[in-house]
Amino acid sequence: MSDYFNDTHEQVRQTARKFIATHVLPYIDDWEEAGEFPRELYKQAGDAGILGVGFPESLGGIGEGDVFMKVAVSEELMRSTSGGLVAGLGSLDIGLPPVAKWARPEVKEAIVPPVLRGEKIAALAVTEPGGGSDVANIKTRAVRDGGHYVVNGSKTFITSGMRADHYTVAVRTGGDGHGGVSLLLIDRDMPGFSTGKKLRKMGWWASDTAELFFEDCRVPANRLIGAENAGFIAIMSNFLFERLSLSIMAYMTAEIALEAAMAWAGQREAFGRPVKGFQVTRHKLVDMATQVDVAREYTYRCAALMQAGKNPVKQVAMAKNFAVEVCEKVTREAVQIHGGMGYMRESVVERLYRDAKILSIGGGTDEIMKELIGKQMGL
Question: Is 242 a catalytic residue?
Answer without folding.
Answer: yes
